[in-house]
Amino acid sequence: MAAEPEIRAELRRLRARVPQLTGALAAGVDGLLLAHDTPGVEPEGVAALTSTALAVAVRMTDATGRGDVRELLVRGLYGYVATYAAGEGAVLTVLAQDRVNVGRLHLEGRRAGARIGELVDAVAAPSADAARPSPKAPVKAPAEAPAEAADTAAARTTGARTTRATTTNARTRTES
Known about the structure:
By secondary structure, this protein is an alpha+beta fold. About 50% of the residues lie in helices and about 20% in strands.
């Protein structure tokens, strides 16, 4: 990924601002690792687990009507694992000691998540634009089909696009 050095630098700055952090990583919502600063922890496994925990959190917020997932906090005997939304398609997961100031953790985690989201979304935007047909490119008309079949296909296509846009893109939005 083109933004990996910038993401890694943001993770290091986050760890400098919150000394009780023991690690930080950025991952796609699909569980693929984007960048990490996690000494002593297997980052690919944590990224995959983050995706699984995020899926459960999305189901929980959907079931309770709480809106898009913003963050997830888990407290263990020896510290915290916090996950923050990072733009449209990424998340930031941080590991912190038990003595961390949780308010500071949230403040800095949200800021870093927003910055990482900007970096990831900026890289994803040009590739999404490239996948779209150019407005100047000619578009072939579909072959003649009975009017009833065309109406049914159009309704099915429109419905699928609407569902995909509302469920995929809005799951982990970062508030600015």
